[in-house]
């Protein structure tokens, strides 16, 4: 069952929608069960993924954010990075925990979609990182399952997962959702496989 295609309302949404349609892609969005999410996208195999994500953001009216170490936000450049949705986090702070720092961000927003890379690279990785999962669990928000599938030419969010704390069982549900979805560069696609770690040690 495919999530519904978007119905753009504003001028910005129409621009994003028709840009994707012009490129041959359909933007989709399953009805969100709230306003705060950790968003994970898969498969991430190409630099072009970022363009499709930006256009989908326009088409859906969704302003998604991403987190980065504070060193990526120097004067002037930092203004640009924030404009692109960046939120600086001090990963070297004494006593700091990256996962908990990101989770605490949700308390300061009424509407927040934080994008976290599960694969950590555009190249093929041996396993997924689990930081995104523990961020959602700690913040008590759902995980938005975003995808780009070249077989169906769809891009967007197709479902949501409320983490239960049972990592292995929840990963089976994530794996089932992404079954059959193919990235732009299939040879770079990582398996959805766990490498179990202590919560908080995987950002």
Query: What coarse outline follows from CA principal-axis ratios?
Result: globular
The total number of structural domains is 1
**Low-confidence parts lasting 5 or more residues at pLDDT below 50?**
none
Helix content: 25-40%
Spatially, the strands of the biggest sheet line up as: 1-7-6-2-5-3-4
Number of helices: 6
- Radius of gyration computed on alpha carbons: 16 Å
Termini, distance in Å? 32 Å
What string, H for helix and E for strand, traces the elements in order? HEEHEHEHEHEEH
Q: Structural class, please?
A: alpha/beta
Give the oligomeric state of the chains in this entry, treating copies of one chain as homo and distinct chains as hetero: single chain
Largest sheet composition: 7 strands, mixed
Mean pLDDT figure? 86
Features:
7-stranded mixed β-sheet; alpha/beta; 30% helix; 203 residues
Break the fold down into its secondary structure elements and pairings.
Elements: H1 11-22, E1 26-29, E2 36-42, H2 48-60, E3 64-69, H3 77-83, E4 86-89, H4 98-105, E5 112-115, H5 131-139, E6 143-149, E7 154-161, H6 167-178
Parallel strand pairs: 1-7, 2-5, 2-6, 3-4, 3-5
Antiparallel strand pairs: 6-7
Helix pairs in contact: 1-2, 4-5
Structure description:
The chain has 203 residues and is of the alpha/beta class. It has one domain (20-188). The protein is 30% helix and 20% strand. The chain has six helices and seven strands. Strands 1-7-6-2-5-3-4 form a seven-stranded mixed β-sheet, with helices on both faces. Helix 1 runs antiparallel to helix 2. It is globular and about 45 Å long. The mean pLDDT is 86.
């Amino acid at each position: 069952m495919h999530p519904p295609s978007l119905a753009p309302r504003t001028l910005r949404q129409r621009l994003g929608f028709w840009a994707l349609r012009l490129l041959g892609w359909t933007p989709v969005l399953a009805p969100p069960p709230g306003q705060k999410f950790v968003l994970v996208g898969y498969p991430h195999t190409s630099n072009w993924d970022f363009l499709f994500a930006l256009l989908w953001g326009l088409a859906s009216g969704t302003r998604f954010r991403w987190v980065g170490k504070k060193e990526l936000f120097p004067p002037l450049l930092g203004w640009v990075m924030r404009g692109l949705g960046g939120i600086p986090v001090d990963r070297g702070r004494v006593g700091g925990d990256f996962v908990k720092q990101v989770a605490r961000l949700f308390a300061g927003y009424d509407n927040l979609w934080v994008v976290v890379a599960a694969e950590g690279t555009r190249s093929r990785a041996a396993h997924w990182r689990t930081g995104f999962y523990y961020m959602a669990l700690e913040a008590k928000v759902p995980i938005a399952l975003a995808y780009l599938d070249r077989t169906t030419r769809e891009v967007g969010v197709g479902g949501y997962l409320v983490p239960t704390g049972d990592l292995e069982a929840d990963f089976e549900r994530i794996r089932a959702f992404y079954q059959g979805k193919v990235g732009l560069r299939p040879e770079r696609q990582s398996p959805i496989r766990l490498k179990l770690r202590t919560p908080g040690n995987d950002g």
